[in-house]
Each structure stands twice: as structure tokens, then as C-alpha cells.
Amino acid sequence: MFSKNDEILLIERHTLEMVIDMRRLEHLLLFSLLALLLLFGRDVSESVRTSLQIWWNTLLPGMFVPMILIRFLHARQGFDHLYSNLFNRLLHMEGNAFAYVMCALLLGFPGGSLFLDEAGEQGRLNDTGCQRLIACCCFPTPGFVILSVGSSLYGDSAIGWKLYLCVIASGLVLLMLSRRHVVCASSILHTPPSFFSALTQAIWDSARSMLLIGVYLLLFLVIASLIEQLLPAACTLPLQLLFEFSSAVLLCARLSCALKLRLMLTAALLSFGGLCVHLQIFSALRHCALPYASFLKARILQAFFALCIAALIF
């Protein structure tokens, strides 16, 4: 018969062995990735060039300036007094929760999620409310959808506005379905930074976010190109659509199918975000203990809602 202490020791030993096995698996995967990088150097170089072109020509023009302005407006307390009693009643929220939804909506991912996580860490949002907003308020930036996708990719800003409407509406539906978890928001009054100090900080924070987006885009496109070498051709398209949303939107626009179907798929991709965005968010969260399974479920639901709404609009 084992004593209670012996059972605890066995459990701890078993846990330690599992951790060691996982670490060995991690090392094996990293060395395998390094070997693939050396074997398929030409494909890796092409993926790096493609990712830099997407970042410089598509993401940066549509996202950087709006991101600076939104961060600057928030630093100068432009959102602190946003309040909607109707919004709170419909979505089971308290205080100025509308301001946090608007900031997350305008900042886009991953900046909006990091902003909500900081609000939870500072006590401006309750923990369950913070988790709910991070799961449901995961949107692309309006600049990317309206300018990069609508105006640049499809040549019509009206298409960008309609796609953005699909994304917003699907997020609101998700908030309605999750209203059993109340969001308690409180505004902590403080003296705002000076005009130029706030502007400088907004520029640096936005530049950091854009650099983070670019690096993760590069990594994911490189890894995707390596995996594609090992998979049959029929499996590559779903992989490309799931991995990184900006390159997936570009790929979707080039599909040889009806425009309505391409726009429906684009709306779903914009709402899902892509695994690259998911990794960006969860690698930067410091306070919110949101399980990834719950976040992924919310992303799939919002993508489905956006697809249905796009079918009605276009």
C-alpha cells in the first residue's frame, strides 16, 4: 500500500517526465524546422519576400496611421466618456463598457486584445468581463478592411465598408450570445499626458504593433511554405487560408469563383483572424487567463455569422 506522500511523489515524477518528453518533442520539432529551412532555402527566400511585400504594400498603408490616431485619442481620454445605457442593457454590461468595445474595434487585432488585457490588469475590467471581450471583440482594423481590402484589393471602398459591417455585426451577435457573463467597466480618472508626449507614445506603440504583425506574418508564411512541401497539393489551400489572414484575404481575392462567394469567404476570414493572429494575441496576454479553446470557438462562431451576414448583404 502506498502512503499519501508516495502517491504525491509518483504524481510529481510523472508530471516531470511529461514535461521532459514535451521539451524533447519541442527540440525535435525545432531541429526539424531548421533542417527544412536548409533543404528548401529557395522556397523560404520566396516566402520571406512575399511576406515583406504584403506587409509593406498592403498592411502598413492601411493600418499604421489609423492605429496611431486611435491610440493617441485614447491617451487623451477621448473614449473615457463614451457611455450607452441601451448598449449595456442589450449586451449585459455596466459602466462605460461601450468605450472598451469601441477601442478594441478601432485598434483591431492584436492591439485591441492587448488593450483589453491591460484594462483587466489595471482593474478597469472584471476578469470574466475581460475574457468575454477578448474572445468576442477580435476585429481587424478598419483601415485594413476599408482601405487595404476594399479600395486597394477590390477597387471599391463600398465593398470595404460592407465587409467591415459584416465583421462588426458578427461580433455583436457573439456578444449577445455571451451575455450571461457581465462586463463591469470602471473609468479611472487621471491626468492625461501632454499632447506631444501622447502622440510620441502612440507612434512608438503603433510601430511596435506593426513590427510584431510583420514578424509573425513572415514566420507563418515561411512555416506554411515548408509544410506545403510535405503535403499533397489538395491540402495546401485550406492551410493557406487558416494560417495568416492578410495573405489569405489576398489569396481569396484571386480565386476563380463568383465575386459574392469570394466576398463571403473574405468576411469569414476577417472575422476568424487566422492562426497567426491567435498566436500574436496569446503570446502577448499577461493578465487574462482565457483558454485558447474558448477563444477558438468564438472565432469559428464569428466567422460563421460573418459568412451568413455577407450572404445577405452582397
Structure description:
- By secondary structure, this protein is mainly alpha-helical.
- It has one domain (42-313).
- Helices cover 77% and strands 1% of the residues.
- It is built from 14 helices and 2 strands.
- The chain has helices at residues 4-39, 41-75, 85-91, 97-107, 111-121, 127-136, 142-153, 157-177, 195-230, 236-243, 245-253, 259-272, 275-284, 292-313, and strands at residues 93-94, 183-184.
- Strands 1-2 form a two-stranded parallel sheet.
- It is globular and about 55 Å long.
- It starts with a helix and ends with a helix.
- The model has no long low-confidence stretch (mean pLDDT 80).
Structural key phrases:
77% helix, 314 residues, globular, mainly alpha, transmembrane helix, two-stranded parallel sheet, membrane
